[in-house]
């Protein structure tokens, strides 16, 4: 299994910045990608940003140009730098891992961390 430790988040001001970190441990060799999703009350969970182990990055439309995903010193640590925050960024943010395609590995989700942006 893979264990995910999320940190960061909290309350930010509109126009301000926050940073999230996710560290994966355990059976990490089968991870293909790590990233962040978010879910606001009454809405579906949506992609924020994802990065494959080879460095390919994908951003959700609403965060392009404002959020940046990057890898930490540890291969299985990713950071999400959130700049120019907006009230609509308020959500629970979840770290997620995707397994290698066609493998028997599972995807894993973190417990989530609350991000609240005040106007």
Question: What does it look like?
Answer:
There is one protein chain. By secondary structure, the protein is mainly β. The protein has strands at 2-8, 10-13, 18-26, 31-39, 46-52, 57-59, 67-71, 77-82, 91-99, 108-109, 113-118. The strands form two sheets. Strands 2, 4, 5, 6, 9, 10 and 11 form a seven-stranded mixed β-sheet that branches. The protein starts with a strand and ends with a strand. The model has no long low-confidence stretch (mean pLDDT 96).
Features:
56% strand, mainly beta, single chain, globular, four-stranded antiparallel beta sheet, seven-stranded mixed beta sheet, 119 residues
What is the count of helical runs? 0
Shape: globular
The tally of beta strands, per DSSP, is: 11
Largest sheet: 7 strands, mixed
Whole-angstrom Rg: 14 Å
User: Span between N and C termini?
Assistant: 40 Å
Strand content: over 45%
Q: Helix proportion of residues, in percent? A: under 10%
Mean pLDDT: 96
> What string, H for helix and E for strand, traces the elements in order?
EEEEEEEEEEE
Low-confidence segments, given as residue ranges, are none
Structural class by secondary-structure content: mainly beta
Summarize the structure.
With 119 residues, this protein is mainly β. It contains no helices and eleven strands.
List the SSEs and their pairings.
Blueprint (H helix, E strand, L loop, with lengths): L1 E7 L1 E4 L4 E9 L4 E9 L6 E7 L4 E3 L7 E5 L5 E6 L8 E9 L8 E2 L3 E6 L1
Parallel strand pairs: 2-11
Antiparallel strand pairs: 1-3, 3-8, 4-5, 4-9, 5-6, 7-8, 9-10, 9-11
